[in-house]
């Protein structure tokens, strides 16, 4: 990974008009070096302002940085430059969903699905959005007197299945928060056909934490903090949470081990805040 | 005295900074096949626990549809356990917290090739 950064940086230094800023920005983003990634891509966009993939990359960097409005604007730009771009519509759909704008989320995700009908993550997200719409109580007649404050739609922004959506911005990442019995508290895990198998995956993986507790106790190396393993289909990382719960993160097989750990830390902080806020 | 076929790989592992034990164990029963442990470490116990942990992770990953397991790392407050496995044999390294996991991983994966 470090070699990639060096060779791409060299290439960009030799030819500032090169498109090497795209893979370089992507590598830096995946390494969590978001500030550097953003600067590289913004500089590249100065020379290639109409490149959809550059705007898409910048949108994902903004999303990683927790700047959904900027990310939304960049993806909007992508759609203007390349109508039907599935990643742009998908990103905008996720942002709308997080903000509780369910009909818009559904519209964008439908558009994304039309562009990438085989993408199981889009299908899964669309299924969840539709479920959330179905679960949302009908809105009452508007009151004739002013409400003291705007009410957020009773919608998906509060849905625990989407707790980690703000942290996990790549399609191939998912996280689950389990209680001490291995039951899912938050998060989701979808198959290609949109089925949520979080409960099954959680039940299977939670057994590893019991084994870890036993091992660390007998080895006398203190409490365990994390377990990471490289499986054939995913990188898996786990960490204990309050009340003997367990956080499980699965990321694409290409995700570097170090980045998996960083994502786990971010998910753990998110879960902690949610548990404390929801208590 | 006959040297075990794992001697070279275990020696290479224990040369890594922070590694206090390196073992080859049978994944099914956790019995030590060969080991290099520093004073104060009980090889049989380490092997049994690490093999059990690896086995559990492998079975869980299979059940969850994630496929085979390669490198595994357990990180604790005062140390870490790293393991790789193949064909019912697990190669384990126990290390201190300040050990370089990247190097241990490379060494374990290299050693795994030798288990083939």
Describe the structure.
The complex is a heterodimer of chains A (279) and B (116). By secondary structure, chain A is an alpha+beta fold. Chain A is 54% helix and 11% strand. Chain A has helices at residues 2-14, 21-30, 34-47, 52-64, 68-81, 86-98, 102-115, 120-135, 198-219, 257-278, and strands spanning 174-178, 184-187, 224-231, 235-241, 245-251. A five-stranded antiparallel beta sheet of chain A has the order 2-1-5-4-3, with helices on both faces. The radius of gyration of chain A is 21 Å and the shape is globular. Chain B is α+β, with helices and mostly antiparallel strands and 116 residues long. Chain B is built from three helices and five strands, in the order αββαβββα. In chain B, strand 3 (69-76) and strand 4 (79-86) form a beta hairpin. Chain B is globular and about 40 Å long. The chains are: A alpha+beta (279), B alpha+beta (116). Chain A binds chain B through residues 197, 200-201, 204-205, 207-208, 211-212, 214-216, 218-234, 236, 250, 257, and chain B through 45-46, 49-50, 52-53, 56-57, 60-61, 63-81, 94, 105. Strand 3 (224-231) of chain A pairs antiparallel with strand 3 of chain B, so a sheet runs across the interface.
Characteristics:
heterodimer; A: 279 residues; alpha+beta; Serine Threonine Protein Phosphatase 5, Tetratricopeptide repeat; Beta-Lactamase; 2 domains; five-stranded antiparallel beta sheet; 11% strand; B: 116 residues; 5 strands; globular
